[in-house]
Amino acid sequence: MFSFGDSLADTGNLLVSGALPFPSISHLPYGMTFFHHPTGRCSDGRLVVDFIAEALGLPFLPPYLERGRSFKQGANFAFSGATALDPEFFISRGLGPVLWTNVSLSAQLKWFEEMKPSLCSTVKECSEYFSKSLFLVGEIGGNDYNYAFLFGKSMKEVKSYVPKVVKVITTSAERLINQGAVHLMVPGNLPVGCSAAYLTLFRTPNKAAYDQRNGCLKEFNSFAKYHNSLLQRSLETLRHKYPHARIMYADYYGAAIPFVHSPQHFGFSNGVLRTCCGGGGPYNFNISARCGHPGAKACMNPSSYVNWDGIHLTEAAYRHISIALLHGSQSVPPILSNLSG
Questions:
Q1: pLDDT at 22 over 90
Q2: What confidence tens digit (pLDDT) does each residue in 257-280 have?
Q3: Alpha carbon of residue 184 to chain centroid
Q4: Which keywords describe this protein according to UniProt (predicted)?
Q5: Which residues are catalytic?
Q6: I need a surface site. Which of 2, 16, 25, 78 has the fewest CB within 10 A?
């Protein structure tokens, strides 16, 4: 299994790189639930990529930057803070200073191509090797929008980025298919209008801005759905172009939105919109006292929360998303049936 993406999939590359614009992930409470120590994952425990590896009988994917590891059973190229678009795009729009990293999706693909000769040497050998592998192309794209929204770009401007982001994701999947990939899973975006960071930073007295059913910000959830619809359309075109490839769309939005409608059904007794780890406020998200920083503290039972630190989810939430992708209706088709078919 080979994974690309951002902090929703990073199993340690940012931490190993030593570049820590988000230093709190290097110490507890990050990692408190499953590993009992920080691993570079932006959560209290395992991520979707970890649960998929477990379901396939594979070890947790080692971060690519952790030298001296064997990558025969896969590698993780995901990097926290990564964008789909290259840094130049953001620099040209005045967002250069806010980027956590220059590691975009194209940089991760380059890492994969540099590693490839250590796994296989001929076209035939590589085709056989990669045809038995699962490629997770994302989640990616969320940061392209986060950087822009959180630093004042208008909805209209950020919406204009979406076709560019989707094109890069699809082109990257195509690049992997041309390298021998057959099984690819491409996730969409989560319902960001339900994230504590967005709910705090874009809080408004205008009641019409909130979804009456769940309290999420309607405009930002509509934006995530717009990205997802364009991505699905683009992947359908790719399926027609490469009928031999099995290209799965992973509906992270569809897997996560039931949490806010029926939290108790999933065991989220402390609700959905407040974070487990934070520094106070209506949603327990405080930009000046974020999880892992002075003034913030973690809850005793993260499994009763969906939100971990305001941007990332808890292990419990990622577990439910993984189940929906592996067995349920939120991956088209479900991952396990696809791999056994």
A1: no
A2: 999 999 999 999 987 899 999 999
A3: 15
A4: Glycoprotein, Hydrolase, Signal
A5: 7, 309, 312
A6: 16
For residue 187, the SS3 value is strand
CATH (one of 1.10.890, 3.40.50, 3.30.1490, 1.10.3470) for 2-258+315-340: 3.40.50
Q: Cα angle vertex 6, ends 314, 108, to 5°?
A: 150
Which letter does DSSP use for residue 289 in this model?
Answer: S
Report the candidate in 183, 180, 166 with the shortest Cα–Cα distance to residue 52: 183
Cα angle 216-146-219, degrees, rounded to a multiple of 5: 35
Whole-structure pTM value: 0.95
Would you kindly state where each structural domain of the chain is located, as residue ranges? 2-258+315-340
CA distance 63 to 308: 22
- Is residue 58 predicted with pLDDT exceeding 90? yes
d(CA 134, CA 1): 5
